[in-house]
Every structure is written in structure tokens, then in C-alpha cells.
Amino acid sequence: AEPVQQDTGVNEEVQMSVSVLRGPTAVGMIKMIDENRAPSNEVNVTYIIEQSPDVLASKLLSGEVDIATVPTNMAANLYNKGIDYQLAGVSIWGVMYVVSSDASIKSWSDLKNKDISCAGQGAASDLVFKYLLEMNQVDSKEDVNLQYISSPVELAQSVIAGKGQIAVLPEPWVSKVLDQNPECHVVLNVQEEWSRIHGANLPDESMSVKLESQQEWLRQNGGIPFAQTSLVVRKQFAAQYPDIVEGFLRIYGEEIGWINEHPAQAGELVEKQNLGLSAEVASAAIPRCNLYYVESQVAKPATEGFLQVLFDASPQSIGGKMPDEQFYY
Amino acid sequence: MTFEIHNASKAFKDLNVLQDFSMEMEDHKIICIVGPSGAGKTTLLNIMSGVIKPDAGSLSGFADKTVSYLFQEPRLLPWKTVDQNIEFVLKDKMSKNDYHRLVDQYVDMVGLADFRHYYPRQLSGGMKQRVAIARAFAYPADLLLMDEPFDGLDPQLKRSLINAFFCLWQLEKRSVFFVTHDMREALLLGDKIIVLTDRPARIKGHIQNPIPYWDRHSENVEFQRIENQLNELVINPTC
Amino acid sequence: MTFEIHNASKAFKDLNVLQDFSMEMEDHKIICIVGPSGAGKTTLLNIMSGVIKPDAGSLSGFADKTVSYLFQEPRLLPWKTVDQNIEFVLKDKMSKNDYHRLVDQYVDMVGLADFRHYYPRQLSGGMKQRVAIARAFAYPADLLLMDEPFDGLDPQLKRSLINAFFCLWQLEKRSVFFVTHDMREALLLGDKIIVLTDRPARIKGHIQNPIPYWDRHSENVEFQRIENQLNELVINPTC
Amino acid sequence: MNSSTTKTFFITLGSVLFLFAVWEIGAHYVGQEILLPSPQKTFIHLISIFVSPSFWSTIGATIARGIMGFAISLVIAVFLGLVAGFYRPFFWLLQPWVTVIKTTPVMSIVILAIIWFETDAVPVFVAFLIIFPIIYGNVVMGIRNVDRPLLEMARMYKVKTRRIVIELFTPSIMPYLLAGVSTAMGLTWKVIIAAEILSQPSFAIGTELMKGKINFETANVFAWTVVAIMISFIFESFIQFLEIRLNRWGSSL
Amino acid sequence: MNSSTTKTFFITLGSVLFLFAVWEIGAHYVGQEILLPSPQKTFIHLISIFVSPSFWSTIGATIARGIMGFAISLVIAVFLGLVAGFYRPFFWLLQPWVTVIKTTPVMSIVILAIIWFETDAVPVFVAFLIIFPIIYGNVVMGIRNVDRPLLEMARMYKVKTRRIVIELFTPSIMPYLLAGVSTAMGLTWKVIIAAEILSQPSFAIGTELMKGKINFETANVFAWTVVAIMISFIFESFIQFLEIRLNRWGSSL
Ligand SMILES: Nc1ncnc2c1ncn2[C@@H]1O[C@H](COP(=O)(O)OP(=O)(O)OP(=O)(O)O)[C@@H](O)[C@H]1O
Ligand SMILES: Nc1ncnc2c1ncn2[C@@H]1O[C@H](COP(=O)(O)OP(=O)(O)OP(=O)(O)O)[C@@H](O)[C@H]1O
Ligand SMILES: [Mg+2]
Ligand SMILES: [Mg+2]
């Protein structure tokens, strides 16, 4: 499904398709989606909010989309398997939290001898959580009893229903749970824990406005933050229309800044675009989503560090090897 | 004691098969029913056996009797062998030994000793009929109903089975009703022969056959008289 | 031209039904086959009709003939009415008008005019048999095979069907083989009567019946002679 | 008949009411609307669904998929079933393929399916993978159990094969076919909806159901489920009716 | 017979080879291992799966679930089917329940299932929702088509109902039951695996399959699929064998 190489005449309108999966990545792009923003007026962008991971996967594998947001390890995995997408930038620095109705839990050691419900056995989130358990001297096999469900939907549902004391959840499910079950609260911030171990510091809202400052934050950063989710761009497209991609990424960075600044308005848009989130819940979720756009070259060390951890945990999760230079756009 | 049917009626949709049909039959006798094809003979036996209910009318004398019924078709279970088909109806009535004995006896009687382990589809038409005969005879009952029992058998076999049947009957003198199209058969077995009209079946007339079994042969003048009488009655269009 | 069977053999597992069986039959004749139940008569007809293949041996004269076969059981399609069952075998052979005419004719002949729209399960045993007769007669064929055709019919009906059959035969003089257990039937219809032994079936003997059809009755001395001859042959244990 | 039909109507009605009672009690027992909403709650949502503008296009789309998936499966299954039942070698030839179709988990091929068919067609394809084997299996078994003597008779009388198939085989496999069809008809909706959840077409009960799930509006989920069950019920009664019609000659009366 | 069995063996073998050929060609045509891996690739992964320590415990667990789900469905379906087939009112009584079981999408109730049964049992429950209706439908239809004259005969001779059921009904529904069973057996694995993907028990083909899928290890996914198909094939051949045994008396020979 490769598009035929076409010379870009001025009057020639370029078609560009952008797919984001329902959830935080969509929230990060919500303003652009709502305004159907295009980097320049000879580009016609079609935004699609994918409801089903399988559909997004199928579009990536068949090269139907030009830009998409995917888990960083999935980006590496596809790249290593010869699917021609490059990492354009990292846009989400962790949305995972341990939620519980049990107030006594404050630290990792409190998790010992407890049942913990997780979603998606073998997924990156699962690997990272296990990794952090180990790092905090909690044996993921001996000391705790991990129970899995396929999707966070059922997990969140059962937590709200008061079943399952401790759950590892991604946003926006965390916010939904907190919203619907006052008993529950966040007991551990997974990305904070990660940053602690990797000597990184999470960005603070103060400097999160400007695109530059976002880059700056990471340059300053000593360690390796939790580069959970990324933006990928189709190689041919990037090669063919570099400036369009440039433009798009810049806008994206700025809009993310705007969203962090105006969670309320962003929440409205989320509800309007019916992502399955109410305005309140969405605006509550935004601060917890760590939405910061960092272009790939800057994000490279962090990304590699993150991938390395996953590689050590399970090589298959990133496609068997660390991705090479070409991976970074 | 007698069996009685009081103006029984049976119709299938708008087809009257029996209409106010009444008859009375003394028990411990062999009573033969003859009549044209489609007259309602099988329907009559079905009613006597309780297989179907009459639309109107009543029966008396049948209630407390155990009945054995030789259907017009063999009605064998295709997945059971000759032996098993006969055992099927006997098992609930007697001990293992008893029904084994009975099965042996009757399978021999109908000359299927070599075919005991054959399934119905492996038997010839006449053989299937014989299995049905063995089953009906072996089943302990006060009342035996038979619908064209010796059909599809060669004359010799037919004759020997008729004799065998009569000897058996001698012992217990069960009440027997049977339907046949073979006048000879009727005259050989029937103490009384009831002739039916065509549909809706009514009794055209009946013939008493007081001759003792062993004198029932064409050399006997009396027998010839009764035979002619019967043929008269059967042929005679009206009564 | 004649029909021939050259030492045909047929066994079911270890049961020899036919062994080196040979016979020769002139065509345009009515040939009757009698023999004990389970002898192999139906098997023989099945082989002639090609329904089953002999294990060994060969047939000649049958190949190019169209065959009509009245099976021992009616073999009616339960989901077709009397009419439809007969049409079922005729449709491929003739025009709509022709088979309508034939169906009418033969349904009347067997006296089922009032039951044309009945399904088999609504018919009595004899009626089913009659539908099968109508079907076999109506079907245009050089060779007609019949297995106990007039079984289960009352004497009058039987007689009238035999007469009707003979008249039909007069017109076309098809070759006919038929199996029966009724010696009278055999003598009335058969120009030649072949008597079989018990399994494995061999020809015990055969009897020519040169008497013209209309003289075949017990008053005819010649007829009586042949009748006795036949009974002799049937009863006689060895040949 | 009429009296008996009214009787059956009341029996069924009673049974439905009992079903609701059980549901009601279950809901009380669970006591968590997010897990198991009460019938009343569900009913309210049902109303709001009915009146919603997109209602008809949604169930229309799903019903269309259902009928399509079912029809395709039926035609192919009956055709192959007839041949395979007739002709043993062909049966053995198909056997491995049928096993693969029966067994292959949808998950293993869903992405291929999404790429090859567009999302609207995926459910039809997935339905085929379940419905086809059911009907096929019954047709084959039906043919194997055709009354041999009747077949001999037809062959003897040189009836054309086409007519033997139509007038002899088809009626004899009817009961088997009906058993398969009435089961398959019901399952179709379950499968179609499951597949819709995977492929998320814009108009689909499955999509609506998923929306309900991610919003934790379980009452909504159940309302859509009720809609599916009502659809299924309508189609099944139609088949019941067909069954009675087709057995007029009475084999099964 | 022997010669014919070898014949069928070769036919099946040929068909399987053809299947592989199609797969091979398909893989070449698609050209993306991540979408459709070649048989060879899959085979390599198959080996590595076979030798992996957890292999037996994994398929063991799935097979156990399959057998359990199947057995439970079979027993309940045959029992209820017998009664419903016998006794029309009961059939109408069950009808709404059966429809609900047939139609209710798994997604609508999976959460309840997960909470009520522990994760290992959820697939068994889900399998029941598909297998039960298939077998039930066939049993009912089988009983409706029992030869009435035979039944009259048995009743006439006052044979005990228990024996009528065992010796008359059971054999007559056999072909229907077998049709249902052989279809259901194959589908069981598909359904069990689908459910295992939902509930993710620690030992399960479904879980392995999912792990492979999220990592785009398609060859692995296919390898596990092949394992499932082989399991299915073994069980089906067993049923084929059973079918031949049970028809010794020859209705369907
Ligand atoms: N189930 C049924 N539905 C409709 N009509 C029926 C049914 N059973 C029997 N009949 C009709 O009832 C009449 C009598 O049938 P029955 O079987 O009693 O005749 P019969 O005297 O036994 O004839 P035969 O000597 O041929 O056996 C026939 O005309 C038949 O068509
Ligand atoms: N399919 C079969 N399998 C095994 N044995 C069979 C089969 N068909 C017929 N036989 C046997 O062949 C023998 C002859 O059968 P056939 O039907 O030819 O007898 P018949 O002469 O027609 O007897 P009848 O006068 O009772 O009809 C019987 O002993 C029967 O058991
Ligand atoms: Mg009768
Ligand atoms: Mg015969």
C-alpha cells in the first residue's frame, strides 16, 4: 500500500493521515483534531481516533497512516521487523499508577504478600511494573500475587466495583476510577518511581509551556525518564515531505503545551470528540498524563535507556534487538 | 367375560374410517377379521391396543389386559439384532433366564436360529416378519392382536407357523384377534370370522367356525360349506 | 433374444446367497419365481435390476433394457403425495401431459383416486403397496421386475389388479419377472414358474404353463394338473 | 393447533418473566449497577437507545452483517456439505480445511482479516468461521443418513441426479439442516457483535456495546444486549415457523 | 475397509499438503512475515515451543479447560435436549433461556464471569455459551425425528421409559448428536482460546498467543495456532472413529 511518488506542485494538495489510539495520546492531540489543524494550507490532514488497537496495528502494517502515536516499544518492535516507521518524537512520559482502596499502602514494601491486578500480561506496562518491583526488592513471583486481565476496561470496572484491592492502571482509567470510587486513591506514581531509579526528574508545569523549554527539560535531565509513548512517522512520507512533517511536529509540541496550560478547555474538547471521557475526568487526567513533546534526536538517550530496560526484561517486546540510528527521525 | 367396542368412531380429517362401530367378542377365542384394503382393520386394532384413541365411543374388557400386538410392518429396532429386538420387549417382564429361554424358543420356532446376530437391514422381508412374529408370540399377554401376521412367507413356512401358533394357543388359550387377507388362513385359525365392509367399516357379517382345528381341511365337507359361505359373504356387495 | 445369468454368485460376509447361479429366460414372457423365505429371490431381482452387483458371474440381455422394479417394500418418498410419488419416476421420461395422463390412469387402476393427495404415512399398508404397483406399472420399461407385488391386498382387489395387469401386458408384452409366495398367483400369471431351493438358491425345477390366460381356473383339468405338479415340486424336499 | 399455540405462547411468556425475575434478584444480590444493572435500569436505557437517531442505522448495519454472514455460510456449507456427504473422498479432502476453519482462533488472523476486508466486512468473515462448520457438519451427517432403499429406488428408476438431490436429498437433510440453522442463527449475533468489537465499524451494535463498556455504562451495555437478543428471537421464531411449514408431510409430527 | 482407510489417509494427507502449499504461496504473496509468516518460519517456532519447559503445562491446562467445557456442555445439553425433545412445553419453557445463552455477547458478561469464576474457569464458562446450544439444538431435533411407529411399538409393549430413552431414543439421536459433537469439538478450542485471551490465566494457549500478538511475534502466534489445530485434529479423529463404531448396525453405511 505504498503511495505512488508524486512531485509536489504548489496547487497539488498533499494528503496526510494521522491515527491516534483512544486514550491519552488522543488527549494530547485533541485540539489539533478538533480544529483539524494542518501544518500548511496545501496539506489536507485526516485525523482518525482509532477505537481498536488491532485496527491501528493493521494500518501501520499496511502503511496506511503517515503519522501515528504508539507505545515506544511497539515503535521499536515494528521498526526492527522492517515496518518503515521512524520515531518522530516522544510525547508521553508515563501514565501508569498503582491505585488502591487500601490506605495502608504507601511504599513498594507495603505491596508484599498482596494480590495485585494488572492488565495486559507481557505488555510494556507489565514489564516495567515487574522491573520496578524487583528494583525495590519485591520479588514479582514470590512476594506478590499478580493477577491479569486482558484489558484495563474490565480491571478498572472491577476496581470501581470494589473487587480487587490493588490495581496497576494507566490513565485515563486512573481518573475514571478515582472519579467513580472515592475509596480509591493513587498510592504509587510509577513514572516517579522510575525517574527516581534512573536519576531523572519529571518536568514541572512551570516550564512546560514553550516547545523549546520542553526540549530543554530533557537536555537538562541527568537521567532517563519513562519514555512510554511516542509519535511515529512513515519513512517515505517523511523523506518526501520533510517540511510538512517538521511543521506538524512543531504544532503538535505547542498544542501539547496549550493542553497542559488549559486542562479545562482541553477537557471540553475531549468530551466533544467523545473519547469516552467526561470533561471533568479528562481535565483531571491531563496533569497525570505527563504530556510533553520531545523531538526524537533529543529524546534518543532517554528512549534508548527505556528500551534497554525492556530489552533486558524481554527482548521480544522491542523486536529482539535495540533499534539502530535510522530508527530516530 | 367379553371384549366390547361401543359405537366407536374414528376419522382422519374428513375421512370417516370408523363410524359408530360396535362389536362384541368372547375371550379365549381366535377371532379373525377380514375386509377390503383401506377399510379400517389396522385402525381397529390400533384402537383395541390403545395405540390410538377413538374420537368417540368406548371400549370395555381391554383395560386390565396385557396386550401383545403384531403390527402390519415388522417395526424392528434397526440397531438391535434379532435376539436383542425380542429381548427388548421381554426384559421388563421377566428374569434373565426366562427371557433367554423364550428368545431361544421363538427364534427357533420361526427358523432364524442362524440369524440371531443379524441386524434387520441384513434380513429378507419374510425374515423381518418372522422376527416380529417371534416377538409378538414371546411377549406374555392376555390378548394377542395380529395384523396380517403370516404375510410374505412361503406356503410351507406359513403352514408350519400356523400349526406352531395353534399348539401354543392350545396351552394358554389367549384371546386372539387377527387381520388377514388370506381366506384359507382365516378358516384355518378363526373360531369366528368377522367380515368388514369398505370404509367407513361396518360389520358385513360374521361366520362361526365350530370345526375342531384338526378337521379344518378341504376334504371336510363342512369346512367346504363354511368356506363357500365366507366367500359368498366377502364377495356379496351388500349385506 | 433371451435374458441370461451365468453362474452368478453373491455372498454377504460368509453367507452364500447365490452360488454359481445360472438361468435363461426368453423375453416377452411372464416368468414367476417362487422359493422359501430367505432363499435369495430379492437378491436375484436386485442383481437383475443392477441395484446390487454379483460377486462373480455375468448377466446378458439386461444391459440395453430399461427396467422397472416393484420392490418388496413400497419405498415411497414420505414427503411426496401419491401423485407426486408416481410423477417422481416419470418426469424425466416424458412430457407433462403424458405423465399426467399416466398418473391418472394408474391411480384409478389401483383404486386410489380419492387418495391422490395423501402422504404415505396417511395410507394403509395395502394402499402403500398399491401406490408402488401404480408406479412400477406406469414406468415405461422393457423389463418389469416385481417382488411379491400383490401382497397385503384383499382377494378381490388382488384379482382385479391381476386382471388389469394382464390386459396391460397383452398390449406391450413386456418381459416380466416376478416373485411370489402365492401359488395361485404364480399359476394365474406365470407362463413359466421357476422354483428355487433354500439358500444358497439353486433352481429346483421349473414348470411351463402353456394354458392361455382365460383358461387358467380350477375348473380346467389341465390347470389342476399343473397346479399339482407345482405343489409337488415345491413340497418335494430334494430335486 | 390454535389452542396449543396460545398455550406455548403463555409458557414462553411465563418463562421470559421468570428470566426477568432471576435477573432482578441477581441484580439485587450483586448490588453493583456497574457489574449487573437491574432490568428497570436497563429498560430505561433501552428506551433512550430506541429513540436515539442512530438507532436504526446501527441495528440495520449489524442485522445486514448478520444476514450476510449467515447467508454466505449457509450457501457454501450446504453446497460443500452436499458434495462431501455424497462423495466420501471429497469429505476427507475437505476435512483438514474444515478443522482449520473450526479451530483457528480469531485472534490469530484478525489483523489479516482487517487488512484484507474493510472493517465493515470483518464481522461477516469471522461469523463465517463459526457458522459454516455448524451447518456443514449437519448437512454432511444428514446426507449420510439418507434412507438407502429410497436412494436405490430413485437410481433404479434413472431419475436425474439433479432431481435426486433436490427432491430426495434435500428433504431428507431438512431436519439436520434446520437443527444447524436454528442454532447457527442464534450464534450469528453473538459472533457478529464480538467481531464488531474487534473491528469497530462506525455503525454496529458491537461498537455501541464497547462504548458503553469504556464509559462503565453497564446498563447501556445490557440494553444493547437486549436489543441483540430481541433481534435473535425474531429470526429464530421465523425459523421455528419455517420448520413447521417444511414438515407438513409429518415425519416429525 | 483397510484399503479404503489407507485411501482416505492419502487423500487427507494430500489435502493437508495442499493446505501448506496455499499457506506457502499466501505467505510469499503477502511478503510480510509479521502479517503472515511462512510455514517454515512457523515450524521453527513450533519446535522452540515444543522444547520450551512450560509447553506441556500450557497445552495441558488448555486441553483440560476444553474437555471440561465440552463435557459440561455435552451432559447438560443432552439431558435438557432429551427432556425438551420429549415434552414440547418444556421446550418452549427453555426456548427463551437458550436464545439468551446463544445470543448474549461474551463482552456483555465477561466482567461478571471474571468476578464470579476464577480466571482459570472463565474459558470453560464461555465455551459453554457456544457449545451447549449446538448440541442441545441437535438433540432436540433428533428426538423430534424419532421414528414414531417404533415408539408406538415400545409403548405398546410397556417398555420402561428409562429403557425407551436409552435403547430407542439415544440410538436414534446418535447421528444428530454426532453431527453436533463433531462440530462443537472443533469450535471448543477456538472459543476456549478466545476466552483465555480475555481472562489470561497463567498457563494457557490463549495467553501465549496474546503475548506473541502484542509483540508482533506472528510466527509464534501461528505456531500456537498450529498446536491448537493439532489438538483439535486429534480429538476429531477420535470422534470420527466413534461415529464409525456406533453405526456398526449400518443405518449410515
Ligand atoms: N394417520 C392417518 N392420517 C390420515 N388417514 C389415515 C391415517 N391412518 C389411516 N388413514 C386412513 O384410514 C383408512 C384405513 O386405514 P387402515 O390402515 O385401518 O386400513 P386397513 O384396513 O388396515 O387396510 P390394509 O388392509 O391395506 O392394511 C385408510 O383409508 C387410510 O387412508
Ligand atoms: N445386506 C445384507 N447383508 C447380509 N445379509 C443379507 C443382506 N441382504 C440379504 N441378506 C441375506 O440374504 C438372504 C436372502 O435374502 P433375500 O432378501 O434375497 O431373501 P428372499 O428370497 O427375498 O426372502 P423373502 O421371501 O423373505 O423376501 C437372507 O438370508 C438374508 O439374510
Ligand atoms: Mg392394515
Ligand atoms: Mg424378498
Number of strands of chain D: 0
Secondary-structure class of chain D: mainly alpha
Largest sheet of chain D: none
Number of helices of chain D: 10
Mean pLDDT of chain B: 89
Helicity range of the residues of chain B?
25-40%
Structural class of chain B: alpha/beta
Radius of gyration of chain B: 18 Å
**How many helix segments of chain B?**
7
| Fraction of residues in β-strands of chain B | 15-25%
Distance between the termini of chain B: 29 Å
Descriptive notes:
The complex is a heteropentamer, with one copy of chain A (329 residues), two copies of chain B (239 residues) and two copies of chain D (253 residues). Chain A has helices at residues 24-28, 30-35, 53-61, 72-80, 124-135, 152-160, 173-180, 190-197, 211-220, 235-240, 242-261, 263-272, 279-288, 296-313, and strands at residues 14-21, 43-50, 67-71, 85-92, 96-100, 115-119, 145-149, 166-170, 185-189, 229-234, 291-295. Chain A has 329 residues and is α/β, with parallel strands linked by helices. Chain A is globular. Chain B is of the alpha/beta class and 239 residues long. The longest helix of chain B has 18 residues, at 155-172. The model of chain B has no long low-confidence stretch (mean pLDDT 89). Chain D is mainly alpha-helical and 253 residues long. Helices cover 83% and strands 0% of the residues of chain D. Chain D has ten helices and no strands. Chain D has helices at 2-30, 39-51, 55-86, 88-103, 106-116, 122-144, 148-156, 161-199, 205-214, 218-246. The model of chain D has no long low-confidence stretch (mean pLDDT 87). Chains in contact: A-D, A-E, B-C, B-E, C-D, D-E. At the D-E interface, helix 1, helix 4, helix 5, helix 6 and helix 8 of D face helix 1, helix 4, helix 5, helix 6 and helix 8 of E. The structure holds adenosine-5'-triphosphate (ATP) (2 copies) and magnesium ion (2 copies). The site of one magnesium ion has 4 residues of chain B, from helix 1.
